[in-house]
Each structure stands twice: as structure tokens, then as C-alpha cells.
Design brief:
Layout lengths: L15 H11 L19 H8 L30 E6 L1 H6 L18 E5 L29 E2 L2 E2 L15 E5 H4 L13 H10 L9 E5 L2 H8 L5
Parallel strand pairs: 5-6
Antiparallel strand pairs: 1-2, 3-4
Amino acid sequence: MSARLVGVVSKKQISLAEFRKLTERYSNWSRWGKDDQRGTLNYITPQTVRSARSEIRSGKTFSLAIPLDNKGPQRGLFGRFNPILLMTRDGGDAIIGAYSADWLGGEEKETRSADEVIVMPTQCATHWDSLAHIIHRDMMYNGRSAAEFSSTGAKANGIFASRDGIVGRGVLLDIPRSRRRKHLGPGEGISSDWLEEAAERESVRVRDGDIVIVRTGHMAAARARGDWGD
């Protein structure tokens, strides 16, 4: 992303004409050429990755993942449902010998295995929306026609454009902590001032090519009440 921190313009409803002006003002179409499919990932360069590597201190890692099960993180909005686990081979099959490792010989045929299939909407998992995700006035990013995205997948602006990896300096902006709250309210907007305030509080400066993670506290609130809501 660019080092310019842009938050939600307003929490009030805006007209279609105002919305169209905003799309023109903040559009990145053609910034990196008419054939570009990476968007602001172009800010991540070998130089920014090398710079991020030099700032590693402890080497400690932590996960941003959440549990995937029949309790969350979906409630049916937009036809999405929680992950469904289907066992194709389980412990019972192993006991009765329904499946064996036939490719092994001799006594090794006693070896069994378990296997499963997971069915879920992609929104259930930690993911990165590709530039084919949003279609505005029948067009995708960089003026690509929505016709290039069919039931067989995206022919342009797909996540494959990021296949070389998204690696860089991560910056966490904790908005609730900065606002001295546990979490933000549903639909509450985050202004540019709030982003700048959080960065100042954390004594960090967002640079070109940084990967900014904005915490709202919604995930912690959902887990605390034991219900993901809508």
C-alpha cells in the first residue's frame, strides 16, 4: 500500500454522484500501466523486502488465523455457510480394514490412513481478495471487463497475479487500543486521523510497501460472546 493513510471518508450516507467522484479520486487504474494486475502490491519491491528483513529483532512469529468449524465464522449472510468436514476414510474404516495401503507389500499392509474433505466458502478462511473481487459499472480493476470473470474463474486480476508472494514489513495499527476501547462498533468508520493517531501512539511510520493490518476488535468481541453474528 501507499504510505498515505486513507480512512473512511464519512460515516454518513453519500449520494451515487459523490461515490463516483471518490472512485475517480482514489482510483489506481493505469498507475502501473494498462496491463497491470497487481495494484498497490507494486509498492512492494525487492528493496522494501530487504529493508523489512533488516528490522527483525526477536524472530518471534504469531498466527492471525481463527478456528474453522461448524460454529464459525459464518452465519449465512450472502449464502455463506460454516465449513463442512467430510471424512472419506476414518478410524472406523481403519479398524474394519475398509481401506489399506495396497501399494505396500508384506506385513506393511496393516498400515491404514485417514483422509478428509473440507467444503466451505472462501470467505470462511484467512484470505486475500484479488482485484477481481469487486466489479464497478461492469468493470474490474484497471478497466478489465467483468466478462473476464466467469464460473470457470478469473482470466484477469486473479490472485495468481500475487503468486510470487506477499512479503514485507508488517505494521499493526490497533484502533480500539488507540481510542481506549475494547472494540469498535458495527459499521463504525475509521478516519484518516484515527489511523495517523494509532501510528503516532505506536511510534511507527508507515512507509511505501508496508503491509498495514488494522485491528477493529470485532473478532475478539465475537469470540467473547460466543457468536459470530452476521
